[in-house]
Amino acid sequence: MLINMTVRTRFAPSPTGFLHIGGARTALFSWAFAKKHGGQFILRIEDTDVARSTPEAVQAILDGMHWLGLDYDAGPFYQMQRMDRYKQVIQTMLQAGSAYYCYSSKDELDALREQQMANKQKPRYDGKWRPEVGKVLPPTPLDISPTIRFKNPQDGVVAWDDLVKGRIEIANAELDDLIIARADGTPTYNFCVVIDDSDMGITQVIRGDDHVNNTPRQINMLMALATIDAAIKVPQYAHLSMILGSDGQKLSKRHGAVSVMQYDEDGYLPEAVLNYLARLGWSHGDDEVFSQQQFAEWFDLDHITPSAAQFNTEKLNWLNAHYIKQADNAYLAVEITKRLKKLNITVSEQPDLTAVITLYKERVNTLNELAVSIAYFYQKPLIDPVAAEKHLTADIKLVMATLVESLKVVDWQAEKIHHVMNEVVTQYQLKFPKVAMPLRVALTGIAQSPSIDQVMALLGREEVLARINFAMN
User: Fold this and answer.
1) Which segments within 84-144 are labelled E, that is strand?
2) Which distant-in-sequence residues (6+ apart) come within 8 Å of 103 by Cβ?
3) Residue 180 contacts by C-beta under 8 Å, 6 or more apart in sequence?
4) Full-model pTM
5) Largest alpha-carbon pair distance within the chain?
6) What's the pLDDT tens digit per position in 52-111?
7) Up-side HSE of residue 291: CA atoms within 13 Å toward CB?
8) What are the angstrom distances between the C-alpha of 286 and each of 36, 85, 283?
9) Which helix (DSSP H) or strand (DSSP E) does residue 75 occupy?
């Protein structure tokens, strides 16, 4: 794609709920396109739905953007703070004849809609108050506050070359005259978007394909404004297909359609979530794992598939496990300390948390799994009764007692501990697991752990001996 302008993209969520995974992908693609072309990425909060917009939702959007590392160059801008600007442009359009007052009441419009549907017609405004040359309008009612409608062209087509979906053409006859200001004077969503994109110099609008039906109306409004101000340009549009669950159905909470911040709560790293989102409908050859910087360097709209992407939790978990393995242990220690605190577990100085993390980070998919897995280092474990019945048997007590005596005097290193265990195994003519498994249950509460000699080395002699004695008595 040839870019011969200063690129300005935007992410424009409505603060009526959390920042979900689909919105995060839109933000990521818009951010990456601007970075790739040395442009600017703008955050705009479309809060004109006063009844449903909340400060909490605004904060959730800002928190999600921050957690993902999607820094914006301008904003956040709030539509409710731009009402005077919208009303100014509406007055200009009324004077230019590209907008008009409509006095049709709600009851009239409801009756019209019902009649059209009964006649199997597409519901649309009938143009009763649309001014035309030679047309006599009805008398102006005094008891109705008018809405303001955009005077949409009635002939020809509105067309654009969508940067994802290709050429799209809509006959103007299919579009009715959109309300751009309600009876109380407040501007409507589609109109505010047009003015914002124009005023903010947006060059590429990258958004979900649920907005495809809005695009022809917005283009027509921009073209009407361009006849008033020649500096106004129509941006390019790129509509991203929806994200489906792994079963091919619309993404819902059971698939992962939750707040972006829920992924933080669930133990995912932002690098993993970003990497996964980047691959939802876009590809760069066979590359599966790449950094945010690499993505910005590689990103283009040409390799976005126009078909729906499918969300796959297993793939996200695989990526998250990869990033946990690569992560700095000091960084992980901060995250794990927070998660253990939520479990009412305080991390003590010993054993060293970074060393414990090293022992387990290759074995988990999420930070929460890591926190739960290592909790026994900082609190007495609850011994699984099934594992205890199987491994902490009467015939192993003497073996454990012998091992305890040897452990009291051994140089406390994993290699030396392992040697002592081998000696006991040989003495009692047992296989190594016959000793290692009871030790795991006594020390960790369960029958699975990393190399038990390394676990013992980290727990420390005093704690190991105390736990063995407790478990075997």
Assistant:
1) 99-102
2) 129, 138, 140, 141, 144, 146
3) 90, 93, 99, 148, 149, 150, 187, 188, 190, 191, 221
4) 0.91
5) 111
6) 899 999 999 999 999 999 999 999 999 999 999 999 999 999 999 999 999 999 999 999
7) 5
8) 20, 48, 7
9) strand 74-78
